[in-house]
Amino acid sequence: MAGRVQRRGRGARTGRNAKERTGAGRPGFEQEGTEVSDAVLVLEDGKVFRGSTYGAQGQTLGEAVFCTGMTGYQETLTDPSYHRQIVVATAPQIGNTGWNSQDSESRADDGTPADRIHVAGYAIREPSRTVFNWRADRGSLEDQLVRQGIVGISGIDTRAVVRHLRDRGAMRAGIFSGTSLGPVDGLQRIVQAQPAMLGADLAREVSTDSGYIIEPAGEPRFEVAAVDLGMKASIPEQLAARGCRVHVLPSTATLEQVEAVGAHGFFLSNGPGDPATADTAVQLTRGVIGKGIPMFGICFGNQILGRALGRRTYKMRFGHRGMNIPVIDEATGRVAITSQNHGFALEGERGEEFDTPFGRARVSHVCANDGTVEGVELLDGTAFSVQYHPEAAAGPHDARYLFDRFGDLMDRGRKAGGK
Ligand SMILES: NC(=O)CC[C@H](N)C(=O)O
């Protein structure tokens, strides 16, 4: 009996708080001219979610996408692939492990590790009131958001946002916070005036300009030319741990630059924007494969290798963002649980083999949820790539073996070439 009363009481309290925080009960689409204050997430189709200021106060624009990771928000927020995207977290409470000096995925232009947050905005349901983690040596998440001027919103019904984006697709959005934001239709017009993600050429905005070198851990075994299209910091670390000296090159890199470092292998990174715009990287990839240099690509790199092999890319309705996305490896039939963050995909079908200017290729991996292409490779094994993130943490490490495969490939290439 007492238990029932308590349950009812708890339910009632939650309901009241949620109503205060979210403005629940108002229609999602508001009347023109309705004045807004505090914080709102406005979608391009006119859907409005009212909440509270979180992080920096102000205005931010980007594509609204959702991420289903239950952990690892620091890795997500600092991943340069999220440039110009407003991330909606499906995990109901965010921030309880604070901010630490180890998990950031961004680098300064000269390659030194950086804490830079790349998302355009962050939309969450409930901020943690306490930070409780032994690694949280950089304070709280919200402090970081404020310090870096990242505008967020809390107290919104993130489940409702996700359902909307799942049904209608990722779309342009804005977070606006402050005391008097003006009429809601004015905010919607601001949202609609920003460029769309389709056709956005963004890698240059996050790539290194000058390039840098990450030294190998232990004995150097390979020289690797890695094109930084928005590369997560842990990728060169994974390569360095396998004896690679990683020569990180800007997104504008040329074949001459790749050859100048004496590359045993070529790596194409993840990165933001529409892969259909990455013509320079596609041309470079064709040149590299033509020279017989072994290559490996991750995410944006997979889309670019696919394009170099003659495939096209398309924009997915809402993409894959999270840490528990199952991928089938066609070579073994095994499923890896993977970490992902992409809104575009390569055209192709499970089991497909196709001709390319470099010989036969195939779709090597597919997503077990929706059958989309998750990897491609040349049948001779000299070029391969995956749409997911084998370097990722948080999330499982099921796919780390792909870095070893790249090492084996470079070994074979070196023996064959006598280098
Ligand atoms: N993480 C990535 O490399 C993302 C690739 C590309 N920008 C996409 O959204 O599909």
UniProtKB/TrEMBL annotation:
It comes from the Bacteria. PROSITE patterns: GATASE_TYPE_1. Its EC number is 6.3.5.5. Residues 37-176 form the Carbamoyl-phosphate synthase small subunit N-terminal domain. Residues 1-222 are annotated as: CPSase. Pathway: Pyrimidine metabolism; UMP biosynthesis via de novo pathway; (S)-dihydroorotate from bicarbonate: step 1/3; Amino-acid biosynthesis; L-arginine biosynthesis; carbamoyl phosphate from bicarbonate: step 1/1. Residues 1-33 are annotated as: Disordered. L-glutamine binds at S81, G271, G273, F300, Q303, N341, G343, F344. The active site is at C299 (nucleophile), H389, E391. One of its GO terms (molecular function) is carbamoyl-phosphate synthase (glutamine-hydrolyzing) activity. Residues 1-13 have a biased composition (Basic residues). The keyword Ligase applies. It catalyses: hydrogencarbonate + L-glutamine + 2 ATP + H2O = carbamoyl phosphate + L-glutamate + 2 ADP + phosphate + 2 H(+); L-glutamine + H2O = L-glutamate + NH4(+). Keywords: Amino-acid biosynthesis, Arginine biosynthesis, ATP-binding, Glutamine amidotransferase, Ligase, Nucleotide-binding, Pyrimidine biosynthesis. One of its GO terms (biological process) is 'de novo' pyrimidine nucleobase biosynthetic process. SUPFAM superfamilies: Carbamoyl phosphate synthetase, small subunit N-terminal domain, Class I glutamine amidotransferase-like. CDD domains: GATase1_CPSase. InterPro entries: Anth_synth/Amidotransfase, CarbamoylP_synth_ssu, CarbamoylP_synth_ssu_N, CarbP_synth_ssu_N_sf, Class_I_gatase-like, CPSase_GATase1, GATASE. The keyword Secreted does not apply. Composed of two chains; the small (or glutamine) chain promotes the hydrolysis of glutamine to ammonia, which is used by the large (or ammonia) chain to synthesize carbamoyl phosphate. Tetramer of heterodimers (alpha,beta)4. Belongs to the CarA family. PANTHER family: CARBAMOYL-PHOSPHATE SYNTHASE SMALL CHAIN, MULTIFUNCTIONAL TRYPTOPHAN BIOSYNTHESIS PROTEIN-RELATED. Small subunit of the glutamine-dependent carbamoyl phosphate synthetase (CPSase). CPSase catalyzes the formation of carbamoyl phosphate from the ammonia moiety of glutamine, carbonate, and phosphate donated by ATP, constituting the first step of 2 biosynthetic pathways, one leading to arginine and/or urea and the other to pyrimidine nucleotides. The small subunit (glutamine amidotransferase) binds and cleaves glutamine to supply the large subunit with the substrate ammonia. This is Carbamoyl phosphate synthase small chain.
